[in-house]
Structure formats: structure tokens, C-alpha cells
Amino acid sequence: MNIIYMLLAISVCVAVIFFVAFILSVKKGQYDDTYTPSVRMLFDDELIKEKGTDSAKSNQPILLKDQLK
Amino acid sequence: MESCFHCGDDCTTTVIEHQDKHFCCHGCKTVFDILNDNDLSYYYELEQSPGTTPSRFEGKFDFLENDVIAKKLLEFDEQDVQVVTFVVPSIHCSSCIWVLENLNKLHPDVTTSQVNFPKKSVRITYNSAQLNLHQLVLLLCKIGYEPYISLDDATKKTSTIDRSLIYKLGIAGFAFGNIMFLSFPEYFEVSEFWLERYKYIFRWLMFVFALPVVFYSGSDYLVSAYKSVRSRMLNIDVPIAIGILVLFLRSTVEIVMDWGTGFLDSMAGLVFFLLLGKFFQQKTYSFLSFERDYKSYFPIAVTRLNKADSSKEEQAQVYDLVAGDRIVIRNGELIPVDGILIKGNALIDYSFVTGEAEPVSKNSGDKLYAGGRQQAGVIELDVLKSVEQSYLTQLWSNEIFNKSAESLFQSITDQISKRFTISILSIAVLATMFWLWYQPSLALNVFTAVLIVACPCAIALAAPFTLGNLLRIFGKHKFYLKNSSIIEQLASIDTVVFDKTGTLTTSHKSVITYEGIALTVDEQSLLTSTLRASNHPLSRSLYGMLQENNISSLDDFSEEIGKGITGVLNNNRVKVGSYAFVSDGSSAFAKADLNQTTVHISANEVYKGCYVFYNEYRDGMKHVFDTLSVDCDLAVLSGDNEGEKEHLENILPKNTALVFNQKPGDKLNYIKELQSHGKKVLMIGDGLNDAGALAQSNVGLVISENVNVFSPACDGIIDATRFKNITTFIDLSRKGKKVIQYAFIFSLIYNLVGLGFAISGHLAPVVAAILMPLSSISIVVFTTIYTYFLGRKLNHKTTI
């Protein structure tokens, strides 16, 4: 029946791993802004789609780099 | 009418057609071109007309070329890599996030940019060898995202975010779950063989999990209880702390002595629910700031003339200005220090700092006070005092700004907690005395059991959840409060004081009447053409009102700043301006009331009459005053002259006090005087001149036409369009207080049931483990449903 000790140790370890992961994520600031990532997530797909179509683009782009100087 | 493809505004004056799309101005069209040519047209697919018209910014950010000032704004600066965070008030939709996070497509030297939408800020990393801060800001301005940079940015450097509540909540939740899990077997399978064998490990594991809950997560309650006992004010944290400690100590003793499992799961659950309530109450509007003083209104830098060579201009930090410096203020810029006008025509708009509705014209040699905004042309002035010693900024040295806000107010929870604490302590003592006489071995057991079940978890949760819900409901209706205790204070006010300029009146005047001899068609056409050429605010609003008839280019036009304008066409001359300027000394017509805002007209040197401007009052003002006058005293304080007195007396209820010519300090004292008579005062204002009164009052609210721009320190901000709902907001706060009272009764019933178990000596751990979460959850459900119905009523009212 000593398997109980091991199961206990494993379950507590798993719990502690998730707990530490939570603390670290808070520390890194993941909970500071809970809104923007939810919107940003939706952009990534569109960007790929767009890259495929931008071959036929206008011939004379306004270069902001030049405008600022 | 077409609406602009970029910004969505109606194209009123001009429609620019470009690539089959309509634009309201060249600014919008340029932004479209920039985005389109840089593969960023997806911006317009994400949202319908997401843009903002770029405002005029030439020269506005020149101070960023000064390295000392630029360094103050940078977060990180090393080896050609600079990081800066800007607040950009115009961030409002997902397109904004997208375009700002794709800045590197517009400029290759931007490495990354990240938007924090709730804070309306963007954090940009860029290569400083190729791109400097000034160019970066110009890049943002060009696409309509002008950052807001103020004196405040120069002073505060590091803002640490307090995340301790999330940690505490996380730990309590983690421990609660695990302890519950570990204590389950003993609740049901009491005499199982293996359980008998391993229960000690289970118990000690629970004990280990419980330690951080008591000493870290619950530390706020223990500290607060200790403080309140020392100051002899029994707040709600005292019975909570007693509950936590007794639960913990009794469980420890039970585990050590091998009497039972103890109540550690109830204890962890209690702390978890309490912290959850606290967390819920903490609804913050990160894009608003309620702590602003003059610093976030003032610019960070100003143009100064070099002392040695006065033809050279340099950018100087506002804090570095000393008496004797000569500074240049351009049209639309803010005067940051007190000074003497040396050169140029000054037309200063003081409405935000003094409450005077009209711009004041000043001549050279006049003293100019800090906080005014120049409205006409370039002026030069000699600095008299540094920024901290200026007339306006001295208001902030008043002691009211240093007092901590949470001082005297006793919340409804605190009011009942004193009686509650005393009564449970006496019940505990009486019950113990009975058991000492009846069966002494159980006496200690009963004593601790009473303290455990009496722990007012449900009572402590009633207020946070009710107020937290109301706070969110208010927020949805554009009424933003600093914290939830403001709602309770709002429920108890009995006097409402309004500021006039900007609060009761809208920022633009549009009620204009004409008195005098009627103008002929030719004269009218000449008048409109003349007005069209002038940039004076009164000319603009008068021009806006008159019909556009036969605009023709004038033969001659001249403007004498502070006096008036003259227009000539086909030998007809029209003069528009002050009475003295127009009438040329002839006093044939009675001078109009000096306190009224008037624009006089003469044609070919013959006086015709004048246009009188009236303040336009906010929609629903009469309704607000009539409703409030039923149970509140009302007053209107104004920094303006008495010109509107008669008009106001006619519309407002009879018993409203009207006080004019109030300086910022006078307003503060007026509130203080009311409070010394035991009044609970709600102050509603808008500008820096109200800052003292807002801080002094019990509740200070600010009306704002645009909640993203500056508003002075206050307890809450109301969007100007919701002004007419003020009475509903106050009414809801009062109802919210009722909800809390009902919840109290509800939770007292739970406590009585629990006490029944405790006094009779039957409190088993499993009973406590069921009763405590049940009472907490039912209170949360009750308050949430009740406030939801209150919110529904508000929805109903605003749609009518």
C-alpha cells in the first residue's frame, strides 16, 4: 500500500508545478493586460492571407522614411 | 451626405474623391494614402471607418529634439536601442491595435510595438541610430495617433504594478482546492482501513497548505484587525481575523493531538471567497486617471529665447524655467508659468483654470497667469515665477490634497460590524459559561465553534459584490468611478454643488440672438464674408450660425486683435467687434449689459446692432435640477461674472443658491462651509479651477466631453452625454445600499443557523465545510441578480 505515498507525492508535485507556472505568469505581466491579446490573436491569420496578395501593389509607395527627413 | 471613409465623420464642407472613396479632409486622405501604399489597407477591413483625423502638429513636438527632455520619456536607452511608451488617446478599436502593432511596415527602424488597449498606450522599441524620438512621434501623428505628452511624464519614472492581490488569491485558491481534496476521504469513509493508516499524512499535508493561506493570503485581514483594535474602531476585519485565527489554531490543536481533521478546508475557503470579493471590487479603468493634478495638463517643454542671443530659440524644460527667462507661446499653446506679456497680442482662454467663459485679451505689460491657453498669434513673455510657485499651481499646496482620502467615511459594513463583533463575543462567552457548568470538557469546543460559525464571511462579501456590480453597470453607462466605496458615499449625499462653465454649459456657445436694426441682404453677405476670414472663436461660432449667402472675396480685411475685424467690399465697410471698436465714440445706442457676451456690428460707420451670445446649457439640466431639488440642497458656483444670473434664476428651482465670481480657493471654502454644517456634499465640476472643491467635497465628480483628455483629480468621471442621468445614478446608489442591507439580513440568518449547531456542541467539520461556502455563494448570487435587475432599469431609462 506504499503506492499511496508515491501517488500523493506525484499529485502534490503536479499541483505545485501548475502553481509555480501561475506565479511566474503573473510576474511576467501576463495578467496586466487581459484584453489586447484577445484581439491580437485574431490578426495573425489575416496577415498571412495578405502577404499572398501584395504582389500586385501600387507602383509608387509614399515612403515615410523620406518624408520625415 | 457622404461620410468619410477614414474617420466616419460626415463630409460637411468639402468632399474629396479619391480611389472611389470619399474623404472629409486632406488629413484623412493622406493617412489613407500612407496606409494603402504601405500594405496596411487591412486597417479599413477590420472596422468601418476606424481612423481619426490627424490634428495640426507642426512644431508641437520640437522639444523632443532636445536630448535631455527626450531622455526623460525613454524607458530604455542603450546601444542604439530605445524603448518608449506613449499614451495615445485616440486608440479605440481593433484596427488601431493592428496598425500600431504593424508600425515596422511603415518604418523599418521600428523593431516592435505593442499596444495595451485598456491603458490606451503603445510601447515601441526602435533603432535610435536611424530614427529619433521626434521622428517617431511625427510618424505616429501622421497616421492620426498623436501621443499625449505632459509634464507628468517627466516626473514619474517607474510605476510598479501591485500584483499582490492576484498572488494572494492564487495561493488561497490553490490551497483551498488541495485541502478540500485531501479532507474529502475523512468526511465520508471514516473507518476504512487504509484511511486509518494514512490520515496523518493527509492531515499534515493540509496543515502545510494552510500555512501560506493564513500568513500570506490572510495577512491583510490580520493586520487590519490589529490596527482597528488599536484605534478602538471595530471594523468588519476583526471578526474575520478572529474567525481565521480560531479556525487555524483549533485545527492545529486537533491535528497535533490526533482529535480530528480540523476545519482547514473551511478556513482556506473563507479566505479565498473574501479575496475573491476584494478582487471583484477592484474594477479599474486603466485608461482613466483619477489622481491627476496640473502636471498632466501642463506641457513638458516650452520654447525659450536664448539669453545671450535673443534671436535664437531653444527648447527648455518647464521645470528649468526661472524668473527672468523669456519664453515664446504660439497659438493654441498653454502658458506654463506666471509671466508678463512683452510682445504680441494675447487672447487667453482661462475657462479651464478660472471658469471664465470668455477669452480675455491682454496688452503688453499685463500679467498672465499659468494655465491659460493662447488663442491668437505668437506672444513673448517674461517669466515671473517658476512653475511650482505659480498662482494656479499653489492651489495644490492646500492641505486637502495631502490628506488621505479614506479617512473619515464609515461604510455600511463598518457600521454594523461593531455591534456584530460585540454580540458574537458575548454569545461565545455565555455559551461557554453554560457548558462549563453543564459539561466542562466540551466548553472550549463550543467557544471556538461559536467564533468559527459567526465569522461574517457572507456579510463581508455583501458589499464588495453589490458595489462591484454597480460599478460595472455605471461603467457601461459611461459613469466611471474611482472605487466602489464612492457608491456608498454617493448614496448618502444631501447637497449638490455644480460648477457653471463647462459643467452646466457646453463648451461651444450656439444660442445667439440679434438686437438692433435689421441688416440688408448685401450687408449680411458682407458680414459673413468678413467673419469667414477671422479665426476668433466668437467669429467662428457666429459664422457657423449665419447662413452661407454669397461668400465673396473681400477687397480689404483687417483684424485688430482683442478689438474686432473690418471687411471692405465695393466701398462698403463692415466693422465687427467690441462696442468701443464699432461705435467710434458715438453713444447713440444704449450700451448693452457689460456682463453679456456681445459682438457689435456697424456698416459704413453706422451702428447697426449686436449679436448676443448665450451659454448653451446641457440637455436635461432643468430635469436634473428639478429631480434633485426634491431631497437635496442645490447650489451653482461660477468663476464667471453675473451675466447669466437672471437667466439661470428663471430656469433653476427657486431655492438654488447662485454664487458668482468665485476663485478656485473660494469654491473650496464654500464646500468646507457647507460641510461644517453637517452637509454631505456632492461637487460636480469640470476644470482645474474646481480641483480644490472636488477634493474637499465628499464626492467630487467631473463632467467630461471626452473622457480621454485631461480631467482634474476626482472620485468619478461622467461622460457629458450622460449628464441627464445623474439623478438615476444617485438613485441607483441608494438602492444599492438597500441591497446590501437585505444581504445582511440574509447572512444573519445563516449565522443564526450556524450558531444553533455551535451552541449545542454539534459543529462537525463537514457541517462547517458545507455551511460556509453555501452562505457565501448564496449571498453572491443574491446580490448579483438584484443588481442586475437594477441595471436593467437604468438601460430602460437611458433608451427613452
UniProtKB/TrEMBL annotation, chain A:
Q: What is this protein called?
A: Cbb3-type cytochrome oxidase maturation protein
Membrane-spanning segments: 6-26
Source organism, top-level taxon: Bacteria
Task: Say yes or no: keyword Transmembrane helix present.
Answer: yes
Under the heading InterPro entries, the entry gives: Cyt_oxidase_maturation_cbb3 (IPR004714)
Family matches, as NCBIfam families:
ccoS (TIGR00847)
List keywords of the entry alphabetically. Answer: Membrane, Transmembrane, Transmembrane helix
- Origin species, per record, is Nonlabens xylanidelens
Automatic annotation (TrEMBL), chain B:
- Describe its membrane topology: Multi-pass membrane protein
- Signal peptide start and end residues: none
Q: Which Gene3D superfamilies match?
A: 3.30.70.100, Calcium-transporting ATPase, cytoplasmic domain N (3.40.1110.10), Calcium-transporting ATPase, cytoplasmic transduction domain A (2.70.150.10), HAD superfamily/HAD-like (3.40.50.1000)
Q: Does the keyword Transmembrane helix apply?
A: yes
Domain HMA positions? 82-148
**GO cellular component term of the entry, any:** plasma membrane
Q: Would you identify the family this protein belongs to, as annotated? A: Belongs to the cation transport ATPase (P-type) (TC 3.A.3) family. Type IB subfamily.
Q: What is this protein called?
A: Cu+-exporting ATPase
Organism of derivation:
Nonlabens xylanidelens
